Amino acid sequence: MHEGWIMLHRKLLENPIIRKPKYCHLWVVLLLKASHSQTDFIWNNRRVYLQPGQFVTGRKKLSKETGIPESTVERILKYLESEQQIEQQTFNKNRIITIKNWRNYQVPGKSGQQADSRRTANGQQADTFNNDKNAINGNNRERASSKFIKPTAQEVTEYAKSMDFQLDGWRFVDFYESKGWMIGRNRMRDWKAAVRTWQKRENNGTNKNGRDFATSSEVGTKIEM
Predict the structure, then answer these.
(1) Which residue has the higher pLDDT, 103 or 176?
(2) Are 84 and 169 in a shared domain?
């Protein structure tokens, strides 16, 4: 978690938080703490996944890490949430924070910045803006072998909502993670098509996909930091 890089876009200079030191401080800490790849852990005999741009934390922990009072941390998080910079799933002792638009600014090739093969004065290559070279190479190999990109739980939920379909994105993601994103013997190519299939089955009362997998709320109420 404490290795690698994040990209800090110059658009931050246009954001009002740049003139509020505590707001800007906490925002940068959130970016640094967010996972750059999918992570998982086992809770209550279930495998739970966090997607890139997400992490589990708590108000008290953020206060300790930043030196910002807990009440101020809470106020800043609510502001960032209202500005659509983050999403929060809060529980008794912790919360899952999702950095919105993570892929737009932190995933190679999504930020609009072109990789420059020339070295800078200190010998640092342009691709070191990304988390680490090995992760980039691994991602490139994965893209080369398959164009399919796993969706985040947030993306699944938002897509389902666009069709007036109430679907827990975590249930969908956990279900297909357990199957290696395979549909039968074939690797999934279009997750949106799979969501539409779930919708049809739900409407027909025949969909049982994911019934044995934990939703985020079931997991979150028991995680302790």
Answers:
(1) 176
(2) no
